[in-house]
Amino acid sequence: MKNPIMPASGTFAEEMAEIIDLNTLGALVTKSVTKSPRMGNKGPRMAETTAGMINAVGIQSKGADALCKNSVPFYAQFASPLIVSISADTAEDFAALAAQVSVPGVDALEVNISCPNLEDDGRSYAMDPHQTHRVISLVRKSTSLPIFAKLTPNANAVADIGLAAEHAGADALVVANTLLAMSINISTRRPSVGNVMGGLSGPCIKPVIVRMVYQTYKKVNIPIIGCGGICSVEDVIEYMLAGASAVQIGTYNFVNPTGMAQIIQDLEEYAIKNGISKITDLVGAVQDDSRDFTGEALAF
Ligand SMILES: Cc1cc2nc3c(=O)[nH]c(=O)nc-3n(C[C@H](O)[C@H](O)[C@H](O)COP(=O)(O)O)c2cc1C
Fold it and tell me: Where, by residue number, does substrate bind (predicted)?
């Protein structure tokens, strides 16, 4: 990767090539694809919240054949590596899908074991270390491509889930997907999204996910891709200090579709201005020596 900035799955598609030069991105990440075409959830699929949004798209997908036939060749015209995100309902299906989309032109697979919309009450593979280990082990056996496990912030101990994914053969972690959420329209007294619950994303989740990246970085030895609420170069730096080697930008693409390109430029300027010759020097460089904290902070 020429820089650590890439889009988050589901917030990016081929049409972005009309708006920004995709060659400038660190990597390209597809919307999660399922084996067969999927309609997704009934609407409304999105609702605004304070400093964020709730989505309940429900993995609308054109299917793996269409991805391999159309999207992979389309993205091949750009220099940036292509990461294909996969979603399935069973561990065996995840493995079969991983094999199916491991075609020339695909550089890595992101295993979306975290999407909260697929199963009742937001449960997913990444809620549980054993389930995570099982599905990542099977995917590991079915592809020779690097695999990234995308974790859910709805799990209690995300760092332990990350460790399970690492032990099962994941090459990197994406921390994280959306937080299970709900909002109600008080005029209609109906949930704001058709699926009743959905995933919260945007700046409102950033401090939660920065904390999870920090905790996970202390536990695992594989790289972490931070994802949650990033809207500026300062947010990128914060994630890197917490332990992220790279970042994904999601909701901000809807606010500012050229934002990723601007952040890449800003990151270069930040590095020059601050005398940083190697941006990876920032990874995990937070000064968290407990002596720096006040007694009050420790009491928390
Ligand atoms: C509209 C929408 C669709 C999404 N679809 C997917 C998806 O298909 N697969 C996935 O792993 N994450 C999906 N996500 C989650 C994002 O990739 C990202 O993890 C999350 O939004 C947090 O990042 P952000 O705060 O920068 O948006 C979606 C998010 C949004 C807002």
Answer: 31, 55-59, 112, 177-178
Mutate to test the pocket of ligand 1, among 178, 227, 238 (most ligand atoms within 8 A of CB): 178
Stated as kind and residue range, the H or E segment containing 180 is strand 179-181
Residue 57 marked as a ligand binder: yes
Would you state the structure tokens that stand for residue 181, as one six-digit string?
A: 């959420």
Write the DSSP symbol of residue 119. Answer: S
pLDDT tens-place string over residues 240-289: 999 999 999 999 999 999 999 999 999 999 999 999 999 999 999 999 98
**Domain 5-299: CATH class, spelled out:** alpha beta
Beta carbons within 8 Å of 125's beta carbon, 6+ residues apart: 91, 113, 114, 131, 132, 134, 135
Give the C-alpha distances (Å, rounded to integers) separating 242 from 145, 224, 234, 255, 288: 27, 10, 12, 25, 10
Query: Domain extents for the chain?
Result: 5-299
| Max Cα distance, the chain (Å) | 59
| pLDDT band of 117, cuts 50, 70, 90 | very low
Residue nearest to atom 12 of ligand 1 (CA): 9
158 has a pLDDT exceeding 50: yes
12-48 residues labelled b (16+ CB within 10 A) or e (exposed): beeebeeebebebbbbbbbbbbbbeebeebeebbebe
Whether 50 contacts 201, CB under 8 Å: no
Pairing of strands 172-175, 184-185: unpaired
**What are the pLDDT digits (tens) for 6-37?**
999 999 999 999 999 999 999 999 999 999 99
Active site residue 115: yes
